[in-house]
Amino acid sequence: GTIFNFIDTKPVDDQGLQTFKYLRGNVDLRQITSLTKVTSLAFRLNGGVAYSYASSPSLPYEKFFFAGGSNSVRAWRPRRLGPGSFRPNFSADPDADGIYDYNIEQPGEVLLEASIELRNKLFGFVEGAVFIDAGNVWTIEERLKTDPETSLIIQNGNSKFNVKTFAEEIGVGTGFGLRFDFTFLILRFDVGIKVYDPARIEGQRFVLDDVKFFKPFTNGKEPVIYNVGIGYPF
């Protein structure tokens, strides 16, 4: 994202083409340890930081970090976790869709996530797994929310990364899954279950006892997320 340091250009040229100046780094560490002939333990630690500077007001959208989904924290829908403890809007139909509206993706400039997964061959080409995922994204500048009726800024959780509070804003999920090894590809099916949701009010963030596997998600119950993927998550 630094190529335009060497080219004299405007943030938006006369043809409407927008250019960006930014720095972005990402480290993804993975390890798989064989415990027995049919059992293995896999670890993952993934982190990154991105920063736009000079006249660029933002990163290109595809360069933001996202959390949630079949290769991330599997108890959240793809790109819907975070940022920080920022709360999405309440769902218009909580009985059908759950307590929050997760229709909007949640980008961030800071990413931290980790996973541990125990994999065991069950029979033939079928493998089972149990896992724990943890992580979130954060913004560098606080994200503010405005009340559409009064135009007043309302406090809606904290989206900004802070070394003093980020540990309390890490979402935690657990779950189990099946992998079908067809040699030429691995088809994966994972069930993600929320354990700790940083978007909830403090004191109400442990939600494992509110899990409901099937619709309707009445009485504030948390929906379970079903993930389908190709290959291992990490």
How would you explain this protein's 3D organization?
With 234 residues, the protein is mostly beta strands. Helix content is 2%, strand content 38%. The protein has one helix and eleven strands. It has one helix at residues 94-97; strands at residues 22-34, 39-52, 110-123, 126-138, 145-146, 153-154, 171-181, 186-196, 211-212, 222-223, 225-230. It has a seven-stranded antiparallel beta sheet, with no helix packed on it. Strand 1 and strand 2 form a beta hairpin. The chain is globular and about 60 Å long. The two termini are 27 Å apart.
Secondary structure elements and pairings:
Blueprint: E1 22-34, E2 39-52, H1 94-97, E3 110-123, E4 126-138, E5 145-146, E6 153-154, E7 171-181, E8 186-196, E9 211-212, E10 222-223, E11 225-230
Parallel strand pairs: 9-10
Antiparallel strand pairs: 1-2, 2-3, 3-4, 4-7, 5-6, 7-8, 8-11
Overall, the morphology is: globular
Poorly predicted regions: none
Radius of gyration: 20 Å
Instruction: Please provide the count of β strands.
Output: 11
* Assembly state (oligomeric): single chain
First-last Cα distance: 27 Å
Output the number of helix runs. 1
Strand order of the largest sheet: 1-2-3-4-7-8-11
- Helix-strand pattern, N to C? EEHEEEEEEEEE
Overall pLDDT score = 87
Helix % is under 10%
